[in-house]
Amino acid sequence: YLSSGDLEFLGRVDQQVKIRGFRIEPGDIETALQEHAQVQKAVVTLREGAGEKHLVAYVVPDSVQKVPTPSELRAHLKERVPNYMLPVSYVFLDVLPLTANGKLDRRALPAPDASHFITDEFVAPRNAFEERLCAIWTELLPVERVGIYDNFFMLGGHSLLAIHLIARVREEFKREVPVRRFLDEPTVAVFAEILQQQGAGLIEEAITRSAREQRRV
């Protein structure tokens, strides 16, 4: 209560956040991270950049000699939480910042830079269909190449671009990709799997048609 008698809303008592339509308890991710043998402490927060929200994990390794890689931590988490709960960046700290009374100072957590965002080992397209999907992604994203297991949102994608991407695929392949499925696993490999299940024959026709149009250009 303020001196005027009005109520001031300070925020939630818990740390629940919402991202791409999913309600997430960061504490569940933190608990899963701390089950890793090389993690002493972990904090997960929601940050916003370029108009898109994403999860960031701050990790204090158990030993400076054995620091887990972001890919190792994500693989560990994938066995314990849904894909939409996976952080897109991992920041390693010697200690977590604390307030004067010894509580976690979330405001003092450093913002991640480009080196903190997880990138998978590049895996090239395995067929003409995946090659065409990767080409569409590179036209929309600020990257020069896309591997079939690269995460759309970790490559700079956001909700608006995701809508454009699904619209492009709908126009070119005459097939619909469930938005929720894409948000849950935004990779070319899964994208291709969904579309191929809907009709491989028509997809091959679309690839052939697209190749002919590109040759004309």
Can you offer a commentary on this structure?
With 217 residues, the chain is α+β, with helices and mostly antiparallel strands. It contains 6 helices and 5 strands, in the order ββαββαβαααα. The chain has helices at residues 26-33, 70-78, 128-140, 159-173, 179-184, 188-216, and strands at 17-19, 22-24, 39-49, 52-61, 89-92. The strands form 2 sheets. A 3-stranded mixed beta sheet has the order 3-4-5. Strands 1-2 form a two-stranded antiparallel sheet. The longest helix is centred in the C-terminal third of the chain and has 29 residues, at 188-216. The radius of gyration is 21 Å and the shape is globular.
Overall strand count: 5
Quaternary state reads single chain
How many alpha or pi helices? 6
Low-confidence stretches: none
Could you give a short account of the major beta sheet?
Answer: 3 strands, mixed
Q: What pattern of helices and strands is seen along the backbone?
A: EEHEEHEHHHH
Structural class: alpha+beta
* N- to C-terminal distance: 67 Å
Percent of residues in β-strands: 5-15%
* Helical fraction: 25-40%
Overall radius of gyration: 21 Å
From the spread of the alpha carbons, the general shape counts as: globular
Strand order of the largest sheet: 3-4-5
Mean pLDDT rating = 81
What is the topological layout?
Blueprint: E1 17-19, E2 22-24, H1 26-33, E3 39-49, E4 52-61, H2 70-78, E5 89-92, H3 128-140, H4 159-173, H5 179-184, H6 188-216
Parallel strand pairs: 4-5
Antiparallel strand pairs: 1-2, 3-4
Helix pairs in contact: 3-4, 3-6
